[in-house]
Amino acid sequence: MRKVELVARIAARTDLTRTQAEEAVEAILATIKEGLQQGEPVSLRGLGTFHVRAKRARMARNPRTGAAAGVPARWVVAFKVGQWFKQAVAGVAIPAADPAPSRPQAPPGRTGALQHTASPAGRAGERDEPGQTSQEKERRRAP
């Protein structure tokens, strides 16, 4: 299926015109591309995860001449298929989703909402940076 066919199917299933469906598809693809360019994995639950990985430099051969040619290191996009999508394509029966977990109950003697907890970094509003090693994270958390 090509992008034109995808746009046509989306327009047919929704109340969108072809132009609106095409704009939606373009926006989704642009957003995925921007996330990957920033080094972020893009997860689409049930479908899979796009991520960027490094390929190291290597020596290759020209198939016509047999001459050695260097292939530089580069970044490539990889896609890991989600379990649900893999089973759907294979025609395997997809198990029903587990029911939503029940809300935790307050201990006896306590009433009201659950207590707010601090972020994993120990201070509200702070987050670990992607790509940080565990040592860098610990240094950042130290008082």
Q: Could you provide a short overview of the structure?
A:
The protein is an alpha+beta fold.
Order of helices and strands: HHEEEEEHH
The CATH class label of the domain at 41-91 is: Few Secondary Structures
CATH superfamily of the domain at 41-91, by name, is IHF-like DNA-binding proteins
Distance between the termini: 55 Å
Tell me the CATH topology of the domain at 41-91: HU Protein, Chain A
What composes the largest sheet? 3 strands, antiparallel
- Estimate the helix proportion, in percent: 25-40%
Percentage beta strand = 15-25%
Number of strands: 5
Rg (CA only): 24 Å
Number of helices: 4
Strands side by side in the biggest sheet: 1-2-5
What's the overall geometry?
extended
Your description of this structure?
The chain is an alpha+beta fold and 143 residues long. The chain has helices at residues 3-13, 18-37, 83-90, 134-141, and strands spanning 42-44, 48-55, 58-61, 68-71, 74-81. Among the domains are: 1-40; 41-91, HU Protein, Chain A (Irregular), CATH 4.10.520.10. Strands 1-2-5 form a 3-stranded antiparallel sheet. A two-stranded antiparallel ribbon has the order 3-4. Helix 1 (3-13) crosses helix 2. It is extended and about 70 Å long. The chain starts with a helix and ends with a helix.
